[in-house]
Amino acid sequence: MSTFLKIIFFGATIQLNQNPITVNDNPVVLIPAQNLNVVTMGANLKIDTSSEINASAILEAREIADRKYPEGCVTAELIALDDKAYLFQNTGMIWSNNRTMITLSAKDKINTKLEFKKVKLKSCNVIRNTTIKWSNY
């Protein structure tokens, strides 16, 4: 019950960049307007890859995403308030309304009381014209 209440009161999706950016093998640093709180173990980053994956069906989108961005290709270091870094890496893909997003989740278990102040994002293959979202449900 307490997890459910945390999600209801504190869960959110926050867009981290106001203008589209390009992500490649040179880390992009994003400083959110407010710290990113971990409410549940399902906290993740979503990277819009629609500009790179042109597909008309979910299976086609998955094939392209798996080929272009294999597991571990897209990574983010989330920097906590104590400056400790936590690795998030691509673990899945979302396809809806002809939009494709890669999901990055914590590589290791993270404490639900953490707050992150910075995100360092990179990709083995370029992702152009993208937006980054923090989801915490």
Which descriptors would you attach to this protein?
single chain; 137 residues; mainly beta; nine-stranded antiparallel sheet; 45% strand; disordered N terminus
Provide structural commentary.
By secondary structure, the chain is mainly β. Helices cover 15% and strands 45% of the residues. The protein is built from 2 helices and 11 strands. The chain has helices spanning 2-10, 58-68; strands spanning 12-15, 21-23, 28-30, 36-37, 44-48, 74-80, 85-96, 99-106, 115-123, 127-130, 132-136. Strands 1, 3, 4, 5, 6, 7, 8, 9 and 11 form a 9-stranded antiparallel sheet that branches. Strands 2-10 form a two-stranded antiparallel ribbon. Strand 6 and strand 7 form a beta hairpin. It starts with a helix and ends with a strand. 24% of the residues are buried.
Q: Tell how many strands the DSSP assignment holds.
A: 11
Helical element count? 2
Strand-residue proportion: over 45%
**How far do the termini sit from each other?**
14 Å
The helix content is: 10-25%
The succession of helices and strands, N to C, reads HEEEEEHEEEEEE
Low-confidence stretches: 1-10
The main sheet comes to: 9 strands, antiparallel
Mean pLDDT: 88
Looking at the structure, what is the overall shape? globular
Helix/strand/pairing category: mainly beta
